[in-house]
């Protein structure tokens, strides 16, 4: 199992990223309500913060391998891919500000959860 541990450790992050990309590929059939709060950006922050959490968790479970900046950049790349893909999805749009919120959420999750202690992870 030790040989597969680094790969298995990142599976939750890969699964979460896959869900985000699937959600981003769906057309918006229901109009979003016009609220005083930026619900779209809050959703981006929560969902991509989750990706950051799972990526840090994988990094910790994998024995802090590879260097922390690699899963950070890969998680941010998911946001870029999602925004670029949304350009071709009917009723969706690509927004640089959405990606910036995604990147900030991932960075916050990395900053918070890379310093906290957790269990060893899957054995």
Can you describe what's shown?
The chain has 123 residues and is mainly α. Helices cover 63% and strands 0% of the residues. The chain has helices spanning 5-9, 11-24, 39-61, 69-86, 96-113. Helix 2 (11-24) runs antiparallel to helix 3 (39-61). It starts with a helix and ends in a 10-residue tail after the last helix.
Task: Kindly summarize this structure in a few lines.
This protein is mainly α. It is built from five helices and no strands.
Secondary structure topology:
Blueprint: H1 5-9, H2 11-24, H3 39-61, H4 69-86, H5 96-113
Keywords:
123 residues; mainly alpha; 0% strand; elongated
Number of helices: 5
What is the element string, with H for helices and E for strands? HHHHH
Number of strands: 0
Q: Low-confidence stretches at least 5 residues in length (pLDDT < 50)?
A: none
**Largest sheet geometry:** none
β-sheet strand percentage:
under 5%
> Averaging pLDDT over every residue, what do you get?
88
Structural class: mainly alpha
Question: What value does the Rg take, in angstroms?
Answer: 16 Å
How far the N terminus sits from the C terminus, by CA atoms, comes to 7 Å
Shape: elongated
Count of domains? 1
Q: How much helix is in the residues?
A: 55-70%
């Amino acid at each position: 199992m030790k040989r597969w541990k680094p790969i298995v450790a990142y599976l939750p992050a890969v699964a979460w990223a896959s869900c985000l990309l699937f959600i981003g590929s769906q057309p918006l059939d229901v109009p979003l309500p016009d609220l005083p709060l930026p619900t779209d950006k809050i959703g981006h922050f929560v969902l991509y913060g989750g990706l950051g959490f799972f990526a840090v968790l994988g990094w910790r479970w994998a024995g802090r391998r590879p260097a922390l900046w690699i899963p950070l950049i890969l998680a941010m790349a998911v946001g870029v891919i999602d925004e670029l893909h949304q350009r071709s999805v009917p009723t969706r749009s690509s927004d640089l500000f959405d990606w910036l919120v995604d990147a900030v959420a991932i960075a916050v999750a990395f900053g918070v959860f890379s310093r906290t202690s957790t269990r060893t992870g899957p054995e």
